[in-house]
Amino acid sequence: MDVMGRNGGCDFSELEAFQQKMETLANNMNANIEVLAKQTAALLLATAIKRTPVGRYDGKAYVCEGKLHHKGMRKTNGNNGSTLKKNWTSRVYRSGNLIALEIENPIEYASYVEYGHRTVNGGWAPGHHIMKFSVEEVQRNGFPKLERKIQRLVEAALR
User: Fold this and answer.
1) Counting Cβ atoms within 10 Å, is residue 88 exposed (0-12), middle (13-18) or buried (19+)?
2) 8-23: b or e for each residue (b if 16 or more CB lie within 10 Å)?
3) Can you name the residues that pair with 58 across neighbouring β-strands?
4) What is the pLDDT of residues 135-157, one digit of tens each?
5) How confident is the model at residue 1 (pLDDT cuts 50, 70, 90)?
6) Which residues contact 133 (CB under 8 A, 6 or more apart)?
7) In whole angstroms, what is the distance from residue 47 CA to residue 130 CA?
8) Residues 101, 44 contacting (CB under 8 angstroms)
9) Does residue 79 carry a pLDDT above 80?
10) What pLDDT digit, counting tens, does each position of 39-64 carry?
11) What are residue 8's phi and psi, to 5 degrees?
12) Nearest to residue 81, comparing CAs of 54, 108, 109, 53?
């Protein structure tokens, strides 16, 4: 079938249908990106929680997930060792044209666990770098999944 008619006219119906699909995709993209951002925040939050060390209060030494050696403490004040792990929060919000993810732990000693700190005897307790390693893991493993989801959204919109 010829696209060009006898009078030089053209059939633009397929092009108009494609334009309509692209407009629909653009209109839905903000909502889709926000959903993907929330999924990414949830993945990062889960990874940070998994990496957060939990102290032992039975007096036995242990090695945490970060391969750091710790000496256990005797339970004297009712601590159960999971305060830091239980207090992670995430938030996704818009800031202008950007969608921002915020993962935080409001516990006052969280930065000491993250970056390390001096000890009473003048030594140094190394940091666990919970967020640093969690972000690296999500970038390495989560971003390819995110790219595939975006590709599937675009392909579905263009069908």
Assistant:
1) buried
2) eeeeeeeeeeeeeeee
3) 74
4) 999 999 888 888 888 888 888 87
5) very low
6) 51, 66
7) 9
8) yes
9) no
10) 999 999 999 999 998 876 666 766 76
11) 85, 5
12) 54
Give me the residue label for tokens 């403490």: 73
Nearest C-alpha neighbor of 112 from the set 131, 125, 123: 125
Burial class (CB in 10 A: 0-12, 13-18, 19+), 56: middle
Domain residues of the chain, as ranges? 15-158
Token pair in block for residue 93: 């919000």
Residues 41 and 136: their CA atoms lie apart, in Å, by 13
Three-state SS at 152: helix
Q: Which helix (H) or strand (E) holds 108?
A: none
Q: Is the pLDDT of residue 5 over 60?
A: no
Query: Position 26: which residue type?
Result: A
